[in-house]
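Recap from last week: sequence in, structure out.
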Amino acid sequence: MKQVYFYDKKTGNLIGSDQVSDTLVITAGITDIPVPRDLVNPKFDVENQVWTGTKLEDWLKEQQTNYQALLKEHPELIPDDEKQRELLMQQSQQITVMQSMMMQQDQNNMKLQSANQQQAKQIEQLQQMFMQADQQQAVEKSKEVAAQ
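Predicted structure tokens:
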């Protein structure tokens, strides 16, 4: 099993990821190049075979700037209390950090699913080996009984 990432062929935008068979042929819209964890809105650059996007830190700064610009355009949205304003900014940052953590958890879950699938295959192989050993023992016993 291997991890692959799906991207829109026209825009390069990340669509999702999945664990697939090692025999899957990589075609347009699929890559096995991992998406860096610190990218927001990652896009795959087919020509250079790299993921591009906005660094999380830069994106957070941009959100803060956008928030300030919004408040200038719409002063009615400005909280009455400075603490409320700070709390809103902190919550926005926390949401972004949590979204990043969720993406990391998704990647970790994919890895665990792959490990579980490998273990299931190993268990199946062991069961087959035990069945074969049991069959061989039964054949040997029947030969012994027939010889007596």
